Amino acid sequence: MKSAAAVPAKKPGDSKFQLFLREVWKNRMVYTLVLPGLVWLILFAYLPMGGLSLAFKDFKFREGILGSPWVGLDNFTYVFRDPAFLDAVWRTLAINIGKLIVQFPFPIILALLLNELRMRRFKKSLQTIFTFPNFLSWIVVSGVVINVLAYDGLVNSLIKLLGGTGINFLGSEKMFVPMIYLTDIWKSAGWGAIIYLAAISGIDTDQYEAAQIDGATRLQQMFKVTLPNIMPTITIMFILSVGGLMSSGFDQIFNLANAATKNVSEVLDVYIYRITFQSSTDFSFSSAVSLFRSIVNMILLLLADRAAKLMGGDGLFR
Amino acid sequence: MNTFKRKSVKSVLAVALSLTMIGLAACSNSGGNNAETGSANEGNPTDGYTKNLTISLGSTIKTASSDFENEFHKYFTDKFNIKWDYNYIEWDSWAEKLRLWISSGDLPDVASWNYVHGDAVNYIDQGLLYKLPDDWKERWPNVAKAYALTGLGDKLEELVGGTYVLPRPVYFENKPADPLINQIGVIALRSDWAKAVGFELKDAYTTSELMEFARLVKEKDPGKVGGNLVPIAYDINDALTNIVMANSVHSRVESAFYKDAEGKYQWGPASEETLAALKELQATYKEGLLHPEFYTWKNGEATQKFTVTGDSAITSLGGLASYRKDMDTKMKDNLGVNSDELVHTAIVLGDDGKYRNLDQVNYWSAVIFNPEISEEKFERIMDFMEYTTATEGQTIVNMGFEGKDWKYGENKELVSLLPEGTTLDKKYPNRFEGLYVLADDFSVVNPAIKKEYRDRSVELYKLKAELATKDKATAEYDWDYQLYDSKAKNQASFDYATEYTNLILKPGDLEANWKEWVNSKMSLVQPVLDELNNLKK
């Protein structure tokens, strides 16, 4: 009552901006809570976008982003002249679509299974075990994978001990992408499951009780109660994953790749790294590639959002 | 009485005060002169740096914090009254880290940089490198003398109108041969295994002869290493040097763009010679003479198969005597053997018997300064380099201290005083103070390295020079190309070791794959060829 009384009364001739200000003032407590997030977003997400103008400039460090001369679309001409660029684009899409199909369901399945465990302590222990790999850096994980799968490594030693011949796991183009998926599932499925477990914990227990009264088995409860209830979360996560189709785990691929797997491992992020840091420095060129990637990511995200809405689900933007 | 006493105390105080003032004036005078004039011409600056300076340094020599306490490092830090803020750079990330530092303005006060011409021009243009004062050559004559021998220094000055980069001379006082050919392309092989399988020891082998030796070793396993045997321990860069380059001189990044007999620029990786070299590399791999996963090896891992585990018959060594000494130390430490009885060094020829390598310009990497470095720090570093470039400094950097680590012999030759089995590296580990002249130069005369190793190194340099003059198959250092810079040239810079390895491992016909690869690169290569050929006109 007190705050409502403090709001200046609405007048018939007020402009839209005045109405907006009045609305903000009315809900000032809520907007104050939003403020830190908004400031963060402006500082770290929107202001750096000014750097994207480098894609249309010939960047000179001393002249800075604003002072460097404009060159129009010259940098994009160079980008599209390099066949390795388009190869990297298709490769990135292929690997990430595969990830979406193979990897995306794993955290959901893990969350559903963990939810069915009744022994609370056992459930917590398993959850910790599954979540732990997420905290290891890819350098560590890659080191372990390379040592285990190397020609003189653990797996090959076992194969040789059993009378078999060694396998070039690390140099096989065919095995590289599955290795990427498997290691990523091992590392991140537990972490990804946390979001779904949180969504599951929000489900009204009355629904389970009603299902039990109706004689539903545990499996039926899982499919008829749990899954439909977490579907909005799954949709959001799916849309976000689609929005990241052009960005793939650079540190994972960079650390596991070698000369033998170059044709299947040079994804867009690795390409950007190579042209930025492993050949002559050209930040304008790298920015052009990054901008292209971001635009494609944005288009994919909007398409996925639209598709989700057309299928009757919730989208990101309502 | 009292008056007299008071007067005498006053006099004593006055005299003491005067002496103190004179002393202070003398000290500050000496410091001031130093700061103004740099160092004495003899490269032995008068100690008298009154102000302690902390100087940040970027270097690829690994150090431990305890190293800075040893007598060797302390000698230099005390002499020049400096404290190092040392930034170690991993060899594998050297180029990348320097690019980041330079581009972001975070370059240490002084750093060793793997000179890349296109980048240098770009950085200078953007003001990212310090411009040395116009009179630096008069103020630091030893550095200037060594600088003049690099060739690059003067050419770069003409191009950019000043000195921004100090290319590091490979040879200064002790050039081993003329013409000078790059030190790469020297291999080490197990002489005991060669004798056991009846393989002749020579000074030069064709790549096919080395394959033959590897085949014999694989068949007879003279070292009884069983399943661990790696007949030829090369990583992808070694394979490029000792198999591909030996048969196709324009296959490397340094020489990929070259002028043909008509003076027209061509791209070496597209030549039939390169294809033939790749076929040989593929055959070596497919026969199991290389390690099945040689492409996963990082820097130094290949040599370890020879020096640490003793599982290999051939490895890439390089032509410096110091490399041979390191090999000897490692084999002694890890295998408990005397390498003199087991190792033979030789150069590699192409299968047609011709010798191919890169003509060596007399520089490798460069010293650069932060553009914001203070004059005081810059002068101190230059004094430091002036001293370490001169004879006295070079001797200390490479041999330690006179009377303790070495002495002059009867004929004024250098004699090491280090006990048998001790090396200077062990006594004073991680010596990075030779900031300017590379250790290659002193290694020719350094008695801390066995005379046999030094003589062999010079012998092979001379053989290279002789074969290069006879065969005329080495790659000329093309200043026109090297000093040319363009966006197209930068974009057409490939990691050939990775590209070739990928080609030979790719399923299908190598020739078809190679043709496809060449075609895929032409959209980047052709603009460079066009630019270079137009430049010529």
Give the overall form of chain A.
flat
- Largest sheet properties of chain A: none
What is the N-to-C succession of helices and strands of chain A?
HHHHHHHHHHHHHHHHH
The residue ranges of chain B in which pLDDT falls below 50 over 5 or more consecutive positions are 22-45
Strand order of the largest sheet of chain B: 2-1-3-12-4
Give the overall average pLDDT of chain A: 88
Q: Assembly state here? A: heterodimer
- Number of self-contained structural domains of chain A: 2
Strand portion of chain B: 5-15%
**Any idea what the CATH architecture of the largest domain in chain B is?**
3-Layer(aba) Sandwich
Helix content of chain A: over 70%
Structural features, described:
Chain B: Keywords: Signal. The complex is a heterodimer of chains A (318) and B (537). Chain A folds into 2 domains: 56 residues, no CATH class; 250 residues, MetI-like (MetI-like fold, Orthogonal Bundle). Helix content of chain A is 71%, strand content 0%. Chain A contains 17 helices and no strands. In chain B, helix 13 packs across helix 18 and helix 14 crosses helix 15. Chain B is 48% helix and 12% strand. Chain B contains 22 helices and 14 strands. The N and C termini of chain B lie far apart (100 Å). Chains A and B meet through helix 16 of A and helix 3, helix 4, helix 20, helix 21 and helix 22 of B.
Task: Briefly characterize the structure.
The complex is a heterodimer of chains A (318) and B (537). With 318 residues, chain A is mainly α.
Keywords:
A: 318 residues; mainly alpha; MetI-like fold; 2 domains; 71% helix; B: alpha/beta; D-Maltodextrin-Binding Protein, domain 2; 5-stranded mixed β-sheet; 14 strands; 48% helix; SBP (chain B); signal (chain B)
